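testing teh design pipeline on a random one, pls ignore if ur not involved
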C-alpha cells in the first residue's frame, strides 16, 4: 500500500503533504538535490498539493521536479508526466477561479515557463 493511499483513506491529505515535504527533504539530503528520487517525491507532493487546493505550493513542487528531470533526461520524454500534472493544476485553478468569480489577481496562477508554449 502506498503512503498516499493510507493518508487518503483516513482523509488526512494535509498531513500527507507535510510528510511528503519531509520525505523530499530527506531524499535531497541523502541523495543530492538533483536526484531523480527527489523529483519523483516532489511530483507526488505536487499532486497532493493540487488535491488540497494549494496551487502555489503545487506549482513550486512540480517546477522543481521538472527542472530535475530535464537536467537528468532532457526536456521531452522524461518530463511528459510532470508537465501533464502542471496542466491539470492549471485547469483546476481556472475552474476554481471561475466558480469563485474571482479574477486572476490572487497570486496563485500556476502558469509558468512550462505552460505548453515550448515546442514538443
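output:
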Amino acid at each position: 500500500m502506498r503512503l498516499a493511499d493510507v493518508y487518503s483513506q483516513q482523509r488526512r491529505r494535509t498531513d500527507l503533504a507535510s510528510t511528503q515535504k519531509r520525505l523530499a527533504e530527506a531524499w535531497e539530503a541523502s541523495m543530492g538535490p538533483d536526484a531523480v528520487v527527489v523529483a519523483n517525491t516532489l511530483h507526488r507532493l505536487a499532486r497532493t498539493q493540487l488535491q488540497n487546493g494549494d496551487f502555489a505550493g503545487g506549482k513550486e513542487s512540480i517546477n522543481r521536479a521538472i527542472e530535475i528531470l530535464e537536467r537528468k533526461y532532457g526536456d521531452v520524454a522524461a518530463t511528459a508526466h510532470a508537465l501533464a500534472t502542471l496542466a491539470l493544476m492549471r485547469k483546476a485553478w481556472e475552474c476554481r477561479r471561475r466558480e469563485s468569480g474571482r479574477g486572476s489577481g490572487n497570486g496563485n496562477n500556476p502558469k509558468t515557463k512550462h505552460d505548453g508554449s515550448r515546442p514538443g
